[in-house]
# Entry
Amino acid sequence: MNTSKTGVFENIDSLAQLRDELALQAHLMQAEAKDRWLDLETQWDHFQREASTARAVAGKSADEVGAALGLLGETLRQGYTDLKKALQG
# Structure
């Protein structure tokens, strides 16, 4: 009976250690997600400024600005998609 109790306590200790490891990983993931979000927000602000400029310019350089906005927009879309997957996973 004593070995059975020891086994139960070892399982509890092992489970507690696993829980602690996962809690740390979850915390780190939250920090990484927050960092990624802040990076995306900086890019979003840049995107908004560039979009405003593109609307104001409406000349031959608007095509260049539009192409740059398209690329930045796609980068943002991919970043948001990746962050959403990370938060769901």
Notes: The two ends are 41 Å apart (CA to CA).
